[in-house]
Amino acid sequence: MINGNLKADYGADERVLNNRNKQLFVYGSMLLLALFPLFADDYAVLMACKMGILLIAVVGINVLTGYTGLVSLGHGAFVAIGAYSTVIFSNLFSGLPAGILPIIVVPLAILVSALVGIIVGLPSLRVKGLYLAVATLAASFIVKFLIEQDLFAPWTGGIVGIDTPVPNLLGWELDTKREMYVLITALAVGTMLAAQNLFRTRVGRAFIAIRDRDYSAEILGISLLRYKLMSFAISAGYCGLSGALGAYFFARILPEQFGLDLSLELVAALIVGGMGRTLGPLFGVVVVLLVPEMIKITMSGATGGSLEWARYTAPLQEIVFGLLLVFFLLKEPLGINQITDRILRSANRWPFARG
Amino acid sequence: MLSVSDLHLSFGGIKALQGVNFEAKEGEITGVIGPNGAGKTSLFNAISGFYAPDKGKVHFDGEDITGITPDKRASLGMARTFQNIALFRGMTVLDNIKLGGHTRLNTGLFSAFKYFGSARKEELELRRDIEERVIDLLEIDHIRKYPITMLSYGLQKRVELARALAMRPRVLLLDEPVAGMNREETADMARFILDVQEQFGTTILLVEHDMHMVMDICSHIVVLNFGQQIASGTPAKVSKNPAVIEAYLGAAA
What we know:
heterodimer, A: 355 residues, ABC transporter involved in vitamin B12 uptake, BtuC, two-stranded antiparallel sheet, two-stranded antiparallel ribbon, 15 helices, B: 253 residues, alpha/beta, Rossmann fold, 2 domains, 6-stranded mixed sheet, 4-stranded antiparallel sheet, 10 strands, 24% strand, globular
């Protein structure tokens, strides 16, 4: 039972973790993340890295779709731009000392993604909802198409993909997955905190205002042009960072990794986790990446791992996952964040009525 | 302070405004009245920048603002409320009111990412200002953490006024502030409007159907009918004007 919620100054009242249950949850999770690589096996570390990379992109799309209310089905393109920019700039500046290369290349990749994000965001000033989703869909196809062209193959590797560099942070070569885990987790936590901070200030509030009622936002002095494009730039920049980490994490990147599937996966993760909530992307990513793995393991266990059956179980996995998502969203349309909210609320009231 | 001159606005064949002329004097409450469809809300939308008038000018503090966008008018010090409440339903009362402070704050993107430091300082100053100047005045301290959807209609109207006040406006446009309220809520709202005028010296322009309230608190009244301005003057003068009586009650048989 949290008995009373008394504050002596506005600073205390403006804290995000304003009761001990929230603090316990967040600090406890951070501690677990820090201890994770010490006891986890290679497979768990690999999955955690994949989740971290996807998480950064979903946090980005949460800023755009969850908070600003602009739906995009083209954000896979920005992940691609981030990944390919990292490889291209690394090759371009290969004369620089290896230790400082990522510190220059990654911000550049984020910047390129953000700039392209602004261009892709331009239609949002005229069209909303489904129409905007279709307009952004084009980005996904155009970027993939350009990467695959023979004309750009000397830089992008074309349809067969390109080898990626090993990141080196001031002499620390991150050549194992466990080392990458440290970098990815640190950045994922950092970017989530940054996104959370955004919504404690005028910038984030302006985004929510545009989502909830755009003409009312305008009357309060919020320039729709400026903030819609800013939202696109932020989300594209986040996706760019995600792509850059992906490029460092995987030994080789291929254009087909960044197709429509990825764009849809980002949006699906956001919807399942909870739109417009800080922790929504985290829950969503865990579901979107872990549940299919669990289905796979269960099915191969049930069939005894026979290759004969794999022909049938492979498509069945996708169908089961799809049905699970549909069923879940019918039960919990606001996502997993809604469930955790309920748990936290009843924890605050324990041992009295839940509600 | 705020003046419109020879304002014309039409939607296709419908002439919503035909030559409206008046001035809202500094620090005074000016009322705009008229039967349904007289063009009151169209007038407000033209003043706040949602509609571009076909002809005529809107001047704010001597400056011609006819062609500028609503968000720029807000930065100049113009605030408004809407007839059908336009609050942000996904946010708490406090966040809605904080949005009123948007134009007065300077936090940029990167200090927002960081939060601690200049952004936090600015946010806490805003919070203090809102608490002490607006929430206290409008007596909404008990609901400040509530989501908008939990509030009654009358309280939502009051929160919308609070959000407008957080802008520290020089001119406040109120579109039917007491529509649909009972007598007690109307009396409260009238008291708040008078408090705002007295404490902040805000110039107020309001559209309202509640004649008792309009006659009681306005010092100047403009009457519209079918887009035309049929009368203008003090409440006492306007209420005796035969054209106004005819517009409201019909001509004597």
